[in-house]
């Protein structure tokens, strides 16, 4: 079964407790479970890694080069600072989708830059938990094949 590597960056392990008015009340575990369910309907498996360390995420991307079909990443604040993570993602040939629960463009100026935006196929921001599901649908679509009911075919 083809696999999506789902990466969660610093502080996302605190979802549910951390600024719920911004990030929602759902825990990371519940987002991961929802991603697994959605991916399953597309015939895709999911491997998840959360780390508060940049190097762990970079090494996971390196590992994905030979083991994963696609990457979905919420890099947390590394989104705004990590050129190294962007460089790593650029070496991964499969579909890559960036997810943010909040809308960084509507927040503090330091959140307006995404180092990852230029190396991913697309970004989903500001839609909360729905963003993760849309990212799975986008990956399934980009992998060609297992379209879901939630991803209408514009040519149909
Ligand atoms: C975030 C947005 C980032 O700016 C922030 O540092 C996070 C979470 C989001 O999901 O909205 O940790 O990636």
The strands making up the biggest β-sheet line up spatially as 2-1-3-4-5
Examine the coordinates and then state which fold CATH places here, giving the name of the CATH topology. Answer: Rossmann fold
Averaging pLDDT over every residue, what do you get?
94
Beginning-to-end CA distance, first to last residue: 27 Å
Query: Unreliable segments (pLDDT under 50, ≥5 consecutive)?
Result: 146-152
CATH class designation:
Alpha Beta
Largest sheet: 5 strands, parallel
Molecular shape? globular
Per CATH, which architecture? 3-Layer(aba) Sandwich
Q: CATH-wise, what's the superfamily?
A: Dehydroquinase, class II
Number of domains: 1
Rounded radius of gyration (Å): 15 Å
In helices, the fraction of residues equals 25-40%
Instruction: Give the class from helix and strand content and strand pairing.
Output: alpha/beta
Each distinct ligand: 1,3,4-trihydroxy-5-OXO-cyclohexanecarboxylic acid
Number of strands: 5
Tally of individual helices = 5
Q: What letter string, H or E per element, gives the SSE order? A: EHHEHEHEEH
